[in-house]
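PROTOCOL LOG
Step 1. Enter all chains and additional molecules of the complex.
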Amino acid sequence: MTIKQGYADGAAYIDGRYMPVGQAAIPVLDAGYRRSDVTYDVVGVRDGNFFRLDDHIRRFRNSMNSLRMEPAETDGEIHAVLNRLVALAGLQNAYVSMESLRGAPPPGMSRHPANCRSYLCCIAIPWLSVATEEMFERGMHLMIPKVRRIPPDSVDPTVKNFHWGDLTQSLFEARDAGADYAVLLDADGNVTEGPGFNVMCIIDGKVISPLRGALEGVTRASVFELCDEMGIPTEIRDIPADEFRQADEIFTCTTAGGIMPVSRIDGRMMNNDAPGPISTRLHDRFWEKRAEGWHATPVDYSVI
Amino acid sequence: MTIKQGYADGAAYIDGRYMPVGQAAIPVLDAGYRRSDVTYDVVGVRDGNFFRLDDHIRRFRNSMNSLRMEPAETDGEIHAVLNRLVALAGLQNAYVSMESLRGAPPPGMSRHPANCRSYLCCIAIPWLSVATEEMFERGMHLMIPKVRRIPPDSVDPTVKNFHWGDLTQSLFEARDAGADYAVLLDADGNVTEGPGFNVMCIIDGKVISPLRGALEGVTRASVFELCDEMGIPTEIRDIPADEFRQADEIFTCTTAGGIMPVSRIDGRMMNNDAPGPISTRLHDRFWEKRAEGWHATPVDYSVI
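Step 2. Run joint prediction.
Step 3. Record the structure below.
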């Protein structure tokens, strides 16, 4: 493995050009910054393999279509860009983000988004995890904050976006409460998701995930596959806050961390203040299967 | 008036440094882009005078406090930065934006926003107006879209922000419907605001503005001052969509455009498809008073 000189912190691609990630920046007049008019997706690389790369690119394409963005690159070209970024940075374990920005209108045209030319920004940086090693050992500590998740009829959460105002506020509320992270409720008081992760709870042996108000997570879909294989029943439905607080187990899941067991919710300890047994089995099986090449696409490091 | 070389398109200030606006960019790993973790305010310059500069800086400071951001600059220094930007670009009429970004954590620290060092990005560019000359003449055409405004318990609209997903979608809905702009409803079906402007309606001679779900606009406050002076009664309360659609007159107001009369709402024509009489009186008086130096702070062009 070699790292191309200057790319040790990661690599970026913006609208046709490759550069070290530290040089990648968004013009201040671009709607991608000024209006947060951008959709994105994140795929992980572990031990030199992308996980469910095609699923992420497919979801990214659906998100772009939903926002009426059509950057120049085909899905195959996006695949090639992401591969090249990981290769440039020489990363065996990487956090790889693909982003489509609305851009700016041509000179003299109205600033209506329909007049803008959308383009891609993609980055590959060293692997990031939502949970620290300590959190994996003791279980995450979650809380339910006052701030509510932005509702789907305002901003569609299945179109992954940078509208993180509610999630950022939840990070401050969690910190003030001595918790690691928050899980936000919707206007009806049902559980949705946290900053960068889906949530699942386990009640009477059944794995339950929220019906709405959350990203349709690729790792969440992988959890459902695992449950099928392991004979664990699953359900997708509304989960009221009180039911969630009384669950037998809770875990979170995301590309940037996999399956992350929870040991406390709003101060209540579960499983003697440790990761629960079913969550732990799912976590272990997830990484076993990953090591076996489950949904893997090897990075081609020879392209640079 | 001179324009400093290279600054014809506008000037920018980022975290202590001045540059032509075309060179100003936000690093892709900055939370200001990646999490839209930024608050901003916009002040206008007309004929060499800022309008209500201190009010805008005061609101900007409140917004930063609300998000727990504390960039290095004092209010007085922000005033000086904005003045210098307008002078560098030699602008008599300018759109001047002050923005505070969360930034990035120092190397090795967790990505929690509390660990980030916030900083300012400010720009001065040639005057932009929400309404075109044509819209001022014939009146704006508004419509009420399907997408709902992000609610205050998710993202506080009084802390001006770039979470424009709902507003951007409303621009597409408006275009599809043949309208100029949209006015969004909240979850209860009451009128809130449009992309970049407050709305007011006039019923039985009274000027009415929404109680919640909207920015506490500086231009809106100026409209209330005008109404007081002109003996026009005002009211701030919930405005259901149907009542808004049946109003005698409607106008919008914003820093980037002043008072903008509306002639159509959801296809219904008001005032024989033209700007209404009270809206027009307010519009005219607004610019008369501006020309007389109302709330004006002269730009000091000698600083460069």
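Step 4. Note key features.
Residues 9 and 125 of chain A are 6 Å apart (CA to CA).
Helices of chain A lie at 31-34, 53-66, 75-89, 133-138, 165-176, 218-230, 241-245, 277-291.
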